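Dear support,

I submitted the protein below through the web form. The confirmation email said the job was done, but the results page showed an empty box. After a refresh the structure appeared. I'm attaching both so you can tell me whether what I see now is the final result or a partial one.
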Amino acid sequence: MTKQLPAEWAEQAFVQLTWPHADTDWAYMLDEVNECFVNIAKAILKFEKLLIVCVDTEEVEGFFDEEELANITFAEMPTNDTWARDHGGITVFEDGKPVVYDFTFNGWGMKFAANHDNLITRKLYMAGIFGDYAHKNCFDFILEGGSIESDGKGTILTTAECLLSDNRNHLSEDDVNEELKEFFGAKQVLWLESGYLAGDDTDSHVDTLARLCPDDTIAYVKCEDEEDEHYDALYEMEQELQAFKTLEGKPFRLIALPMADAAYDEDGERIPATYANFLIINGAVLVPTYNTAKDQLALDQIQKAFPHHEIIGIDCQALIKQHGSLHCVTMQYPAVIN
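What the results page shows now:
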């Protein structure tokens, strides 16, 4: 059997959002985060269809007009939180046919409750939301979508800090390497040993640090302030990226993204603002922005990686207050190419 984990820039059928509600950690700022989710949803709907998982369909429908609602599928069910990137299904093509892999989501190493979110993908399949896509129970392996990047050609990019975390799978790097190759048909797994963002609850998901892009390109966070606490780790990460090779043995083209200006929560703790947490959709890239002077530079740099896509900035100051950003709240499902 041949397996392929498509690149995010492959043609997509729809994107999933899991909507905030009053019983999530967003309760104290629900109006603010709803506005952000609406902006993300409306941007996606200009390019493709949307799946919204929510606890109250009628409540969420009110944010959209009739034309937009025609392109939204709602799935009503209990949820713990909103991080669809990590509890969403990961679509793999097996002999050219799409299969939604349903890995265990344990709240990033049992840091947070995930009893409802861990069941979302299974419930969506049972409700027929995935249509002709098959479903595979992968509950014996803990994996979050934000922890892996694929170029669609056999290369997986990930971080050691996350996938080798004690509260994930209790496996060695060699063992996890083999699991990723088996699950996704990967020919090589590139492991980042360095790089982190203060306030990140995910144990350094790769989608906050470095992203695979078309034409053997990697967009990554670069810190140029030697006084910043991230400088050394991100410099070491850059050195690792410079040493990585494609399957053809060539270096990757590297595009540096600015380190987002430091942002802090109400307790004075730094929160993980990052421009690397962008979402690629059909014909566009949605980029988190934070209302600072660096936003435009980030948009310009990402345009270099995606010259044929429209680059759209979306204010994600609300999302980082709960330690995530735009890519973290979305999951794409690739289209079936006949």
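Response: this is the final, complete result; the empty box was a page-load delay. The chain has a mean pLDDT of 96.
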